[in-house]
Amino acid sequence: MLNVIWLGFFLVAGFSALFQWLALGDAEVFARLVASLFDMAELSVSVMILLFGTLTLWLGFLRIAEAAGLVDWLGKILGPLFARLMPGIPAGHPALGLITLNFAANGLGLDNAATPIGLRAMRELQTLNPSDDTATNAQILFLVLNSSSLTLLPVTIFMYRAQQGAADPTLVFLPILLATTASSLTGLLAVSFVQRLRLRDPVVIAWLGGTAVVLGILMATLGSLSATALAAASSLLGNLVLFGIIIAFLIAGAIKKVPVYESFVEGAKDGFAVARDLLPYLVAMLCAVGVLRASGALDAVLEGIRWLVQGMGLDTRFVDGMPVALAKPFSGSAARGMLIETMQNYGVDSFPALLAATVQGSTETTFYVLAVYFGAVGIRRARHTVGCALLADLAGILAAIGICYWFFG
Length: 409
Description:
Order of helices and strands: HHHHHHHHHHHHHHHHH
Number of domains: 1
Shape: globular
Largest sheet: none
Distance between the termini: 35 Å
Number of helices: 17
Helix content: over 70%
Strand content: under 5%
């Protein structure tokens, strides 16, 4: 899939450039293509410098939380819920702890760090699979929740915004929280409907009802605020939660007599390795997106979407943020490149860039996740995974558009 997408970006850019030259007389288009390659390669290195620090920092703190028993504690709390939603997993099975740790990494927005943990969880789930090539209900639910983007604190997106010069990188905290809730809830309900899970169970009702009450209170509170106050609230909560989690990890580690410094360094080494391995992918995708924009092809697609939206009598400001939404189901690298390019092209705090960041945080690389996770254990029959995951993606995109108009419109 990634080979097709990446090659397609360059071929489309090439044909578009030929059209610009031969039909429109734009002889400078190829100079722009070459310049964009060097510009995007330089930008990739700049982004990676901050990404090294971000992943190193958070995987270090996550290792402290794991050593302090917070992950096991969270697994015990979620155990009764998992028992209802994934009845095929025996109590105390290693998959439950790995699923919890994977959700924790996803919740912090550490997509690339969450992947190796998720692969370990999928292998453990495969040990319970009576069929070698057909996904179980538990594997499907785990994958759909992964592809619905369980992002509660998107530190990687904060990092991208900081790198691009945002005055307040956490401005999108609340929009992403609300949009990712919509995508995750949609994915859960879709799988529950197909698998006939008992959502009326008291434990499930308590979890879903509690979440609904908290979100209802949050929405009611936010509904009374002006756009300026909403932005300020998002900034305050984002920074407060971010630093509060760090302090909670450190206090828990100190109470459990964990050597916090040594544990942090051990986890940070993993973060360095993950970030290092990302550089070639980031260079590849940013360069491909750069030539796509420079050739005029991306603008042509957006103009087509804008024309359709105008024909429906709707506001068209959201269209410029749609490249991320179009790329995200297929490739995280492509979507990441689209996000950074949108920030560069329109400004990091422009409406398209804020929408692109919100979409990036509330949707996931559905087809990539399916290919990697199922491919790692030899699953060929995904059953209802794709339909449920794409429905969650659609819910996240629509929610992101509506919420961004509410916060930043």
